Amino acid sequence: MTTLVKQVDLQHFEITQLLEAIYFRYGYDFRHYARASLERKVINRLRLAKLVSISAMTCKILYEPSFFNLFLKDMSVTVTEMFRDPYVFKKIRDSVCQHLKTYSRVNIWHVGCATGEEAYSMAILLDEEGLLPRTRIYATDYNNHSLELATQGNYKADKMPQYNENYLKSGGKSSLSHYYQQQGNIINFNDSLKKYITFANHNLMKDQVFAQMHLIFCRNVLIYFDATLQNSVLNLLKESLIHRGFLILGDKESLDFSQQRECFENYANKERIYRLFTNL
Amino acid sequence: MLIKKESTDFSPTYKALVIGVSAGGLKALSAIIPSLPSDFPLPIVIVPHRKHESEDYLVSYLNKRSSLTVLSASIGAPIKLGCVYIAPSGYHLLIERDKTFSLSIDAKVNYSIPSIDILFDSAAIAYQETLIGLILTGANNDGSLGLRSINFYHGLSLVQDPKSAEFSVMPQTAINTTHADYIIPLVDISDFLIKLLME
Fold first, then answer.
1. pLDDT at A5
2. B79, B105, B112: which to substitute to probe chain A, counting the most A Cβ within 10 Å?
3. What are the pLDDT digits (tens) for B23-80?
4. CB contact under 8 A, B104 and A223
5. Same structural domain for residues A49 and A158?
6. Distance from CA of A254 to the nearest CA of B (A)
7. At CB < 8 Å, which residues of chain B contact A?
8. Does residue B10 register a pLDDT over 70?
9. Whole-model pTM?
10. Quick check: B125 and A252 CB within 8 A?
């Protein structure tokens, strides 16, 4: 007897098996990623690798770590820009910084920093607010290739006019070009910014708290996760924050339906800036 | 003039309508959405191409003029009847198999974020033969592959008649590269949908 299984249902089953295999073999837990976007990336890789089925891909991933690295690269989001949503950086500059100035040492964590544009944006802002010398910026990602690019601090010069526009909208006090050297079509950020940023590998799916933070950027990271993984990540972030620390989410993310909602107060609604309540 | 390219013997119950639109979108959407009644039987999800801005003019503009509720699609929200969801600017919009929305900031597709192909591909998987896809005016090629996915899963594919489009490239590309069940002039689209779904 043959039972008809719809192609889409088979595909769903095979992807579930693929994710189980990855978790078993490499410890990366993609089982709680939002599925539609993940499915698209899996299918893209399937076509590029000219494999006949997702099950064939599972087999290749189990036995070829180099192919798994390719998959990891597919999965990590590397799209970012400087001063994305300038009004958020403006709010940080105009009001969050006042709170940060009351500390003698400031730790900032950019979660899922990709190629580092946001970390450099923050370093520039802090420099102009006189806070950079007392700050350590930790910028983490699980994609080592992105981290390497971030550490080098080289970016395409043709993106700079747009970034400069964002920078000025965010309340920038000089010109972005003040912070980099240009050679041909490449710009490189100054060492005076780089020395305050630590780029490091951190995997939200398995790594733990590594320092106490005054401010955490976790923008457009949670959108890739299901409710279960969002909850465990928010818990990790909460544990990483100092008493009265700040958490900044992406403009389409919110704590509204999360279990951590009651631990945070709204600091700025539109900017998605939250502040940890006092632990009683 | 309606051109039916291929006849189907069964008439499935449609569950959702997805629309992709680019240059010329404001005019085209204004000719369709406000003409639909408040009891229109499908939720509508729209990807319009535009620059990433914090304020969403298009949502409030269409909402003021429509009897359906027009709102920005948000993560995890269930897709409800009586609502027209617009993809937020600066994000790809996807539909999960449980018929909720998700967003991503992956690379641009067809130079676009949000991309029509990304919405249509995910919606085709989520709704299969119960999905209707519609490509409107635009000056690029986004949406053609997505419409092909909708055809692949036996959904209904609609394209605005390029002759009635402010920018004909996008609907024409869709017609040239995949098949369209119906090719409809802009002024007839809302009536076509009402007849198809409500009579």
1. 81
2. B105
3. 999 999 999 999 999 999 999 999 999 887 767 889 999 999 999 999 999 988 889 9
4. yes
5. no
6. 9
7. 52, 54, 74-76, 88, 90-92, 94-97, 102-108, 118, 121-122, 125-126, 128, 153
8. no
9. 0.90
10. no
pLDDT tens-digit profile of A135-157? 999 999 998 889 999 999 999 99
Split into its structural domains, chain B has a count of 1
Catalytic residue among B117, B121, B142, B181: B142
Q: What b/e readout covers A41-79, taking b as 16+ CB neighbours within 10 angstroms?
A: bbbebbeeeebeebeebbebbbeeeebbebbbeebbbeb
**Chain centroid, CA A112 distance in Å:** 2
CATH of the domain at B174: 3.40.50.180
Residue with tokens 């919606």: B123
Residue B188 inside a domain? The answer is yes
* Complex ipTM > 0.90: no
Q: Give the model's pLDDT for residue A80.
A: 84
* The domain boundary residue, chosen from A75, A103, A134: A75
Domain membership of residue A51 (yes or no) is yes
Nearest residue on chain B to A11, judged by CA atoms?
B125
Asked which of A75, A102, A125 is the last residue of a domain, the reply is: A75
Q: Do A79 and B107 touch (CB under 8 A)?
A: yes
pLDDT band with cut points at 50, 70 and 90 for residue A3: low
User: Would you list the DSSP string of chain B?
Assistant: --EE-S--S------EEEEEE-TTHHHHHHHHGGGS-TT-SS-EEEEE-----SS-HHHHHHHHH-SSEEEE--TTPBP-TTEEEEPPTTSEEEE-TTSBEEEE----BTTBSS-HHHHHHHHHHHHGGGEEEEE---SS-TTHHHHHHHHHTT-EEEEE-GGG-SS-HHHHHHHHHS--SEEE-GGGHHHHHHHHHH-
Omega prior to B34 cis, within 30 of 0: no
User: Considering chain B, what percentage of its residues have pLDDT values greater than 90?
Assistant: 83
Judge: B106–A79 Cβ closer than 8 Å, yes or no.
Answer: yes
Is B49 noted as a catalytic residue in this protein? Answer: yes
- d(CA A197, CA B181) in angstroms, rounded, equals 56
Provide the pLDDT confidence category of residue B11 given band limits of 50, 70 and 90: low
**Mutation for testing the A interface, residue in B102, B117, B119 having most A CBs under 10 Å:** B102
Give me chain A's average pLDDT, please: 93
Across the interface, do A36 and B95 touch by the CB < 8 Å criterion? yes
Q: Which of B54, B103, B128 minimises the CB distance to A223? A: B103
- B2 is a domain residue: no
CB pairs < 8 Å spanning A and B: 64
pLDDT above 70 (res B2) = no
